[in-house]
Amino acid sequence: MALLVEKTTSGREYKVKDMSQADFGRLEIELAEVEMPGLMASRTEFGPSQPFKGAKITGSLHMTIQTAVLIETLTALGAEVRWCSCNIFSTQDHAAAAIARDSAAVFAWKGETLQEYWWCTERALDWGPGGGPDLIVDDGGDATLLIHEGVKAEEEFAKNGTIPDPTSTDNVEFQLVLTIIKESLKTDPLRYTKMKERLVGVSEETTTGVKRLYQMQANGTLLFPAINVNDSVTKSKFDNLYGCRHSLPDGLMRATDVMIAGKVALVAGYGDVGKGCAAAMKQAGARVIVTEIDPICALQATMEGLQVLPLEDVVSEVDIFVTTTGNKDIIMVDHMRKMKNNAIVCNIGHFDNEIDMHGLETFPGVKRITIKPQTDRWVFPDTNSGIILLAEGRLMNLGCATGHPSFVMSCSFTNQVIAQLELWNERSSGNYEKKVYVLPKHLDEKVAALHLGKLGAKLTKLTKDQADYISVPVEGPYKPAHYSHEHSHIRRNLLSNQTDSYYAVIFDAGSSGSRVHVFRFSQNLDLLPIGEYGLEVFDKVKPGLSSYENDPKAAAKSLQPLLIKAESVVPINLHTDTPVEVGATAGLRMLKGNRAERIMQSVRNMLKNESIFEYKDEWVSILSGTQEGSYFWVSLNYLLRTLRKSYQNTVATIDLGGGSVQMAFALSKENSEKAPINLDGEKYVLQKSLMGANYYLYVHSYLNYGLLASRAEILKVSRNSTSPCILKGTYGYYTYGGVAYKVSPSPNGSSLRKCKAIVWKTLKLNAPCKYHTCSFNGVWNGGGLDAIKNIYISSFFFDMASEVNIVDPKASSGKAKPIQYLNAAKIACKLKAEEVKYVFPNVDSKDLPYLCMDMIYQFSLLVDGFGLNPHREITLVHDINYNNNRVEAAWPLGCAIDVVSSSSSRTHISSS
Q1: Distance of CA 375 to the CA centre of its chain
Q2: 416 is in an annotated binding site
Q3: Which residues form the active site (predicted)?
């Protein structure tokens, strides 16, 4: 890239648009200082002691006038600083010039390309031979992301020589990240590892970045301590609320000169940012509609006099659209085509993925007309009407205006200074682990107090008697620790009258991820609601335990966020009576040696030491396939309310997991007595007494025949050569169970006929059958499924079917026929790798190369393996409507029924 770092006369590096604007920038910085009392007070309080002396701080945060005051506060306290912007449009060039000349190394200018943006981020992290940074001030998490991805790549390179492949992703921005890391490996294969080892921590400014941090904490991949500044009350309730209330209309009017009064404005999301935006639109005279997923926020919006409706209901009636959710795919190109001519579309969330920019830019025949910088009209060819899009879907208040005012940013940035001081001062104490922390409330109150005088406000003081009466210190803090609706993880669901109910916490440690299920039962084993969550509390993390085969402690640690979630919803007084069980499935079954047991023992130690739930060592185990299959059958039939009925009225289940597939159905007693013994010594038939009825349950688990495992087995047949099951244009490796399999298409691309032949070999359909009838691989089939009235198939069967439109992905279940998998395969197998995503846009990008293979495998498994008629109607199920609640159909519910009944000394269930 032909960008060159420049240097000031003092030798400080920089790259800005126009250094001649430095004097103009300095004048505005001086104006801003008057409006930022918190930062100026920090200089007065801490400046003389120089607490940051020796600290190297990298910032990735909008390079604005207000940020300039933050940077010079950090340098006034003794820090060296290197800075870049966190958005390609948000830099104020005169501010960047002033700071580059006077205070810190700056790499930022308005209108960067994405390639230039990531070059700037890399420069801000590059402290030269002396090393650094020690601390990061991040906004959106991009600097943190680059280090984490760099460390991951360096570890892979050291382990097996793997170099990142930028073409492995369709995400253009992530391609640039991988390119930077790839080039870095050539010059210093430990560059990011050395950064990680030196880093004291990061303080994160915004919601999106905080979400990234919590995800990394949950996955056990966070490399250094982090302080969540965003959820400090003086940030989220001020910057997000009052800042957006000020800057949204400012940006709209600068970009479009629109008269807001009388217009219909839609605000997507009613969190703190959404509240500020909705208030601004309402105060300007707009008629405001809010879209919201959270019933609490929706009720707040309604009680503020706003309409709450789905986007789809009003898309053609709205004049101004504002996205504020921090999520993705909020306004899609199909929405835009239905909008009024010249409807204004803008985003005030951090990234550009709330608005479907890719769909818009690639829409056939769409025309972009640039009215002025960051204001574009996009015209659709079929309607000859268009929309006005601001800031290319990025932060419009910074792309089209100057962002939040100085005063409110003083609150946020004072929190940043406090967070950086806390991390730096405690760098050797060991008090901060690799977790995400929130500043305590007394510091929030201190920040607020620093800003009151500027507004002429004076506090009333409590007397000692008054303070004692409400149980707070005279000097504060006055708010409870849980103040802020964001901190749902510390809420306690204190339900009353629950002594007649039972809870169970079940961990499903699968091959693709770990999940926690919390259930509550009545005395009669009816599912009961758990507060606001409905009949089940569910959460998940990735990857699965088997991904930590060389680090058992990290495996156990990956479950901690799920344990915290479970503890937050079970009433405290019932913790010691609530059983917790961990069932690991196919992923751990396939680990070699004692690795699986070492992971299980670490999980036992974690539960024993960190939880007061009722616990027994044997409740943490690797489930046999038979256990998993029987639990799933119990779960599904329980939800369908067929357990008290005769065996003919129960349903058969086929559950396709990642590593294995289980089939289960009830037999007559007569047929059960004819059952042979499995070659592994396990019984094919279990006898169960469930809710007053006896059942003889045929169960078998086929290890290595789950969807993810089947890919490896199918690729094995190709013996590291080309495969007719792989789409043309796909190259690379598929890793499963710690083994990498070459992925390379046949010269002519994928072939339905040839791939089907390989799948048949994989299923071992011709294996000798020692019984009257077999399914595949010589396994007794229990007499087959012909006599079963209803067959339910689930997990990957449902997931893949929903992605290729065999069933509605939004539905809880759907009717289908096995032949539909083959029909999907016929289409997929004719496509090239670059074509398949357009034909099957709902399929996850990581699964697209294997779509031909997966569809053939699922069809053959059902028809050739389990003997189903290809035209027989079956039910694909994800969850079941039980008492007007959707409950996931999965084995943990069956396990919960079992463990609750046994731990509470009741006899509704037994098995032999």
Answers
A1: 31
A2: no
A3: 628
Percent of the chain as helix, strand, coil, to the nearest 5: 40, 20, 40
Crossing angle for the helix pair 191-198 and 142-160, to the nearest 10 degrees: 120
pLDDT band (50, 70, 90) for residue 1: low
* AA identity, residue 739: V
Task: Round to whole Å and give the CA distance between 511 and 72.
Answer: 50
What is the SS3 assignment for 270? coil
Q: Is 658 labeled as ligand-binding?
A: yes
Which residues are catalytically annotated?
A: 628
Q: What is the pLDDT of residues 535-566, one digit of tens each?
A: 888 899 999 999 899 999 999 999 999 998 89
Q: Rounded to an integer, what distance in angstroms lies between the CA atom of residue 511 and that of residue 707? A: 11
d(C-alpha 466, C-alpha 572), whole Å? 31
Locus of tokens 């048949």: 760
CA–CA gap between residue 395 and residue 692 (Å, rounded): 61
Say if CB 641 and CB 651 are below 8 A apart. Answer: no
The DSSP annotation for 523-590 comes to TTS-B---GGG-S-EEEEESS-GGGGTT-HHHHHHTTHHHHHHHHHHS-GGGGGGSBEEEEE-HHHHT
Is 374 annotated as belonging to a binding site?
A: no
Write out pLDDT tens, residues 475-526.
Answer: 776 765 455 433 333 222 322 334 468 899 999 998 779 999 999 988 778 8
What are the DSSP E strand ranges found in 299-439? 307-308, 320-323, 343-347, 367-372, 375-379, 386-390, 436-437
**For 97, left (φ over 0), alpha (ψ -120 to 50), or beta?**
alpha
Phi then psi for 896, rounded to 5 degrees? -65, -40
**Terminal CA-CA length for the chain:** 69
**pLDDT tens, 365-397?**
999 999 999 999 999 998 889 999 999 999 898
Q: Is 862:868 a contact under the CB 8 Å cutoff?
A: yes
pTM (whole model) above 0.70:
no
Mark 748-779 as b/e (b = at least 16 C-beta within 10 Å): ebbbbeebbebbbebbebeeeeeeeebbbbeb
